[in-house]
Amino acid sequence: MTVIATAAAISLSLPFSFCRSTKSYTRKFVKGSFGVFAVYGEEGGIPDKKDSWLALFNVEEPRTKVPQSKGKFLDANQAVEVVRYDLQYCDWRARQDVLTIMLLHEKVIEVLNPLARDYKSIGTMKNKLAELQEELSLDHNQVHISEARVSAALDKLAYMEELVDDRLLQERRLLDTVKSKQPRRTLNVSGPVQYYNSHLKNFWYPVVFSADLKDDTMLPIDCFEQSWVIFRGTDGESGCVQNTCAHRACPLDLGSVNEGRIQCPYHGWEYSTDGKCEKMPSTRLLNVKIKALPCFEQEGMIWIWPGNDPPAATLPSLLPPSGFQIHAEIVMELPVEHGLLLDNLLDLAHAPFTHTSTFAKGWSVPSLVKFLTPASVCKDIGICIQ
Known about the structure:
This protein has 386 residues and is α+β, with helices and mostly antiparallel strands. The chain has three domains: 24-181; 203-324, Rieske [2Fe-2S] iron-sulphur domain (Rieske Iron-sulfur Protein), CATH 2.102.10.10; 334-386, no CATH class. It has helices at residues 50-53, 76-112, 114-117, 122-181, 338-346, 351-354, 374-380, and strands spanning 24-31, 34-41, 205-209, 218-223, 226-232, 238-242, 256-258, 261-263, 270-271, 277-279, 292-293, 295-298, 301-304. The strands form four sheets. Strands 4-5-6-11 form a four-stranded antiparallel beta sheet, with no helix packed on it. A four-stranded antiparallel beta sheet has the order 7-8-9-10, with no helix packed on it. Strand 12 (295-298) and strand 13 (301-304) form a beta hairpin. The longest helix is centred in the middle third of the chain and has 60 residues, at 122-181. The radius of gyration is 47 Å and the shape is elongated. It comes from Capsicum annuum (Capsicum pepper). One of its GO terms (molecular function) is iron ion binding.
């Protein structure tokens, strides 16, 4: 926060030059340590330019605009406003003092003017000049007082600025602390997440499309909260190993595939599709192996078996029925519970409205969609379930 206040003419730097004459001369009057110098000649007086800088003194007194506050204490913003009006008042007061000095100076010029001197006695002029010198001295003292007031107001403003900055900094730190303590909101579309049943792992899961896995590429995946990486071996067959090097636990997917082996980017250890380390640069080759999952490729998809039970010998066919074709292969990551996903797949009524750009493009809206359940099937075939 920066507040700039300007006290006009505090240093008496206003245009106090007087009109010049081709025939001018000076006379100096000195009383004590205070001197008054007047310049006069044929033209005399204040130059015609005074109207341009006299506008500097035409400033409204700010005392009538002082903000009114209620209560015993002021907040930071009110305190800053009070200091600002103090500065404005000091500026106005200084302008008035300088204006008084200027008017007195004009009176001095008037007294010393040769034309006016003809009508006044020397004694009168001395007395008048002494009075003017005294008034001028008082006004000079008032200017110094105004300077001191402005300096004090600026010091007060700097102090208030420091207090406001400290207050804002404390409030910002407090707000950051409150935000850090608030629990982070997570997407919850299906209720609390339940722990996986161990039996869920004993199934074949399709994880990637075969077309996406090239000989020199690898694809990292997450399955049951564990990280794995899939790549093709020397025989072109797909394999799935844990995404962690046995040496320094570096993620293997940050490395590369080298001659059918996945290479760690840290020390160059290389693993085959069964998880065995077949190359250890700069050291003696040891019998080291990382975990690998059964991996199988069928009908354009790569499947893995994450469970501990022996994998099933056959996989379900995902080929489309006769007369249908695959329009697109899409991979989506959705933070939903798997039961909701199954409900969506079994809900055919939404297809003509949601999937208008893919497989349901051009579908007509059916008048009735019949949902089959085990009970309804038994009822249709005449079996009574007790």
